[in-house]
Every structure is written in structure tokens, then in C-alpha cells.
Amino acid sequence: MEDLTRKLVSDVQALSDYIRSTGGVQPSFDRNTPITVVPHDAPLGAQEARERIMDQCLKLLQLATGPSDYMINIQPGYHYIACLQWLCHFNIFRLVPVKGEISYTDLASLAGTTETRLKSVVRMAMTTGLFLEQTPQQISHSATSALFATNEDYHNWAVYATDVSAPVAAGMVEAHKRWPYDKEKIHTAYNVAFNHDLSFFGRLAQNPALHKQFAGYMRAVATNQGTHMKHLVNGLEWGSNPKATIVDVGGSTGHSCIALAQAYPGLNFIVQDLPEVVEGGPKILEGVNDASVSSRIQYQGHNFFETNPVIGADVYLLRMILHDWNFENCVKILGAIVPSMRSKSSIVIMDSVLPAPESVPRSSERIIRVRDLTMIQVFNSQERAVEDWEAILEKVDSTLKISTISQPFGSVLALIKVELAR
Ligand SMILES: C[S@@+](CC[C@H](N)C(=O)[O-])C[C@H]1O[C@@H](n2cnc3c(N)ncnc32)[C@H](O)[C@@H]1O
């Protein structure tokens, strides 16, 4: 613990010095604190110091807790989720004024609940950094709760995590008891949790409201440090062919292409997704309000199990797609692209490459492992190590080879560039 603490002190000093040197604001719970601790384009040293601080604090907490208090330390986890779900459903984030305070009495009456329940939930949530009680019996926003109040996509993320992801995680044991060795995508914890026999995307296709919520969640995830768009934008030399055409396969409403188009003014994009998803794309482009970006992005309804209709694109991008699918389906999805590729074409898979245990900071490893478990629970799929990716490519076409793997710092996703070595 002493060794960890010595390193922690030095990293906190380095991070604070960096923030001071930029005239930035030191992290605090105050509502007016910026929502990111260091900007996404901060020097690597500052970002690494922040990562180590999180890692050291996590390990220190675990060490100081000790084995006999393990359970006590882990129990708040499921209550945090229950409280977050409750706060979303009773609209508490939006009912607390963005500036100023509101009493528990008034807030309970606006939310249609009892003051006792409200207090218990909010005060538990406060231990995670949501809301403040600076004046006794009055609630105000912290920087984090204000984010959920003002950013609809973040709110969607919270609703999604608590209404969908948490019950699905709770269904894992039952699913694996019911289908011990089965890899069917309709025999998952997701099927157990919602008691149906549709695949994840099959259920979304039948329910536009769920689809809209999922697209919002994806947009919010894209702004998070680990899955931030900067890793896509800076992770490859996109500008090496300044006039290239990029096809974003399963590109949702186009947030990846928008980020790339903003950074690379010569590139052109085709965003492919299921028809009901790309339908929402033009509205998102309107929001960007920049003709020099929107004029270079087209939308195309396309089922990625069918041969790709765009012949000879420079890049077929698959960002956070293949981890949703098991080995056989990954082979089918990639196999539907290969016939449309020409010699100049490449495929860029942006997905996790699983690290060996303890080979990366524990604070970031647990986030990658959340993704791995989610894939098992929702799709009977998995996150993959390099050899797993190579095995898929070999099965699709033995001439399909990984040419580079780029793992941007702070990213939970790597960029795996795949080319035809014919
Ligand atoms: C996890 S999201 C990733 C979205 C986006 N690529 C990103 O990086 O945020 C998976 C996407 O695959 C799309 N999808 C699922 N099944 C599909 C299919 N058969 N054909 C095309 N798109 C599909 C979903 O609609 C969703 O937008």
C-alpha cells in the first residue's frame, strides 16, 4: 500500500500540475466543473497519470478493504444500479433545477413519490458523486448529475444500462444453466431477462422506441474516453488517401463518419445500417449543421449478411460490430464484404483486442471485461484476443491478413487493419 501511495502522490501531483499549467479547473464535485478531467487531446503524460491514479485508487481500496470486508464493499454495486434506474424513472435528474436547489419535499411531490424514498435513493446516489446536499434538506446538481440532466444521450445511457444491461447480467446464470454449451444468439441471458426468443437486434427491429434508445446510448458511449471518437480519428492514417471512400458497415446514424468527415475534408462516406436505423441519419446530419460535412455522407439501408453493394471502397469500417456476433456470424459478415473488395480495399475492424490478465491497469482491464461479459450475455459472442481474430480471418479467406493493429492509449478498442494479400 505504501508503494502504491507513493506513486499515487506523484501522479496526482503531475496531473494537478498539468491542469494548472493549462489554466484548467481541478476535478471537483461542483456543478460547474468540466465534464472531462483532462481534454481528449491532452498530452499522453497527463492521460497516463490519470489512468494510473484510477488504477492505484482502485487497488488501494481493495487492499484496505481486505478479504473479510469484500462483500460489504461489493454490495453497494447493485444498489447503485437500482438507484440510478429509480432516478431515471422518476425523472429526478431533470426535476432538480440545473442551477440552484430544490427541497426534498417539493421534489418528491413533483416526482410523484414519497420524501422518505426520495431521500434514501438520492443520498445513496450521492455516495457515487451524483447530486449534492450543500444546504440541509435541499438537493442540487453535482457536475455528474448535471450531465444526465442536460445531455439526453447520457440519460439514455443510464436508462439503457439499468433497464437492459443490469437485468441481462442477472440472467447469466439461468441462461448458462438452461443452455450450457449452446452458442445460439437467441439462447442468451438477454432472452432469459426479457423472456422472449428474438435476437437482440431482432427485438430492436420490432420496437422503434428501443431502437431509438439504443442509438442514443451508442452516441453517448462514443463520447466516453475509452470509446471516444478521437481514437478512431487519430488511430489510423485516414488522410494517406485524401479522396478515399469509407463504408461504415453497421454505422448506426453516422457518428463515426461525422467525426472522420470533420477531421478529413476530402474523404467520402457511406453509412450502412438496417433501414429503420439509417432513417434517423439525416436528422443527425442536420444537427451537425455543416454542409461541408453532410455533403460527403450518404446513408444506405443494408443488411450486412448480404453482399456489400459498394464495390471497391477504399475502407470497409466495422466499428463495434463483430464483437456482437459469434465466430460463424463474423465469418459471414466479413465474407459478405470480401467479394466487393478490390486490390486497394482494406477492412478496418475497430473492436477490443483482449489483453492478458493484469497486463494493463486493473481500472481499464475491468472496462474491457465488462464488454466481454456483455457480449456473452447478449449475443453468445465474446471480445477477442489477436489469435481469435486471426482464426476468423483465416476461415473467411486465407489471403485476408492483419497488416497493422493500432491500440490508441485510453481506448478500449483497437484498430485492426486487414488486407487481401493476393
Ligand atoms: C454496437 S452498434 C455499433 C454502431 C457503430 N458502428 C458504432 O461504432 O457506434 C451495432 C450496429 O449494427 C447494426 N446492425 C445490426 N444488425 C445489422 C445487420 N444485419 N445489418 C446491418 N446493420 C446491423 C445495428 O443497428 C447497430 O447500429
UniProtKB/TrEMBL annotation:
InterPro entries: COMT-like, COMT_C, SAM-dependent_MTases_sf, WH-like_DNA-bd_sf, WH_DNA-bd_sf. GO terms for molecular function: O-methyltransferase activity. Keywords: Methyltransferase, S-adenosyl-L-methionine, Transferase. Transmembrane segments: none annotated. GO terms for biological process: methylation. Residues 190-395 form the O-methyltransferase C-terminal domain. This is Putative O-methyltransferase. It comes from Pseudomassariella vexata.
